[in-house]
Design goal:
The protein is α/β, with parallel strands linked by helices. It is 18% helix and 30% strand.
Length: 107
């Protein structure tokens, strides 16, 4: 039986990263995106094959990435990165909780 992990505020996000985001093909993110502390977002195929930034509140490209939600990042103009910071912290807490709940494998 899988052990339940509380994702807290990260549960409703499609993607959360502490190391930025690079999309290299047609990608659909179903939900919001949080990028903190490294606020980089690059869509390598988003502008007819040319790389472009995706650090905007909403982002969609027919040839690259589409986020079906909002994009939050460190120092964003919406809440100065508060949402991105909170979500990536919640994800770290969930990761630590999951590691603590691992069931030892029989040898």
């Amino acid at each position: 039986m899988p052990l339940a992990i509380n994702l807290r505020g990260a549960a409703s996000f499609g993607l959360a990263s502490r190391a930025g985001l690079t999309s290299t093909g047609v990608t659909m993110v179903n939900g919001d995106v949080a990028l903190y502390p490294l606020a980089t977002c690059s869509d390598a195929t988003g502008d007819a094959g040319a790389s472009q930034t995706c650090l905007v509140k909403t982002y969609s490209s027919s040839t690259g990435m589409t986020a079906k939600g909002s994009i939050f990042w460190a120092a964003d103009p919406f809440d100065n990165g508060g949402t991105a910071n909170s979500v990536t912290n919640d994800l770290q807490i969930a990761w630590n909780e999951a590691r603590a709940k691992q069931i030892p494998r029989a040898r």
